[in-house]
């Protein structure tokens, strides 16, 4: 199962961040600044540049786009429903709910290129453009309610939502940046994944998952079990062609977004709990993604 190797470097980067923060002079103050850099600059640039540079072709992928949104909507509904469980910690749920439906965009792009080439990248870019704003709105909502923040204010200043919407509008308008500007944005975006994953490792507290183990298990079960199974059902119902069926399954089985940790910290949530979820999700993705592809 060679696809395991695609996620191994991401998990190792988390481990590197953990070691650097605890056993070198690069301690928490350094990584708090790095988290802000990733959240407010590097990852928004990565999303914007990925969407702007890729032909979306929405008319040719209407069924795929609808299925991708359907996968995310089910994840949101199930994650929100967990709040109704007796004894669920409100702060842990508000912080961790996003793990069930958000996805790692960078891994999505890399995996699509590996499996389906340029066409796969174009399809994933469309799903990113449609689903990232939806995922971020759904992630901000419980955190804003729990922390007493204004939802509209938080959405209007969320850099991931702003960059994705800007990328989508620029793509639809046919905007093409000068080569120097495009190359600069590309190089800035390249730093997003390694630094973001190391920041996750730096903020990791392995014991934090003990604060809500049942909630953690339920969120990860949705992310890595329920959503891929739902994607298979949607593919059959919509009669998606083989390549799109493969892509939708990969999309549904992706590890959660590494920026979930940064969002939780920035909005006063349970950052350590989310960091543990992100790490476990990345590790689970290394195993479950190839298994789902084999099943397909």
What's the helical proportion of residues? over 70%
| Rg computed from alpha carbons, rounded to a whole number of angstroms | 18 Å
Secondary-structure-based class equals: mainly alpha
Largest sheet: none
How many helices does DSSP assign?
Answer: 13
Our estimate of the beta-strand percent is under 5%
Q: Give the strand tally.
A: 0
Q: What is the mean pLDDT?
A: 86
Given the C-alpha coordinates, what overall shape results? globular
Low-confidence stretches: none
How far do the termini sit from each other?
14 Å
Spell the H/E element sequence.
Answer: HHHHHHHHHHHHH
Keywords:
mainly alpha, 13 helices
Q: What do you see in this structure?
A:
This protein is mainly α. It is 77% helix and 0% strand. It has 13 helices and no strands. α5 packs across α11 (242-252). The chain is globular, with a radius of gyration of 18 Å. The two termini are 14 Å apart. The model has no long low-confidence stretch (mean pLDDT 86).
Reconstruct the topology from this structure.
Layout: H1 4-23, H2 28-52, H3 62-81, H4 90-96, H5 105-147, H6 151-156, H7 159-172, H8 179-190, H9 192-202, H10 213-238, H11 242-252, H12 259-266, H13 271-295
Helix pairs in contact: 1-9, 1-13, 2-5, 2-7, 2-8, 2-9, 2-12, 3-5, 3-10, 3-11, 4-5, 5-7, 5-11, 10-11, 10-13, 12-13
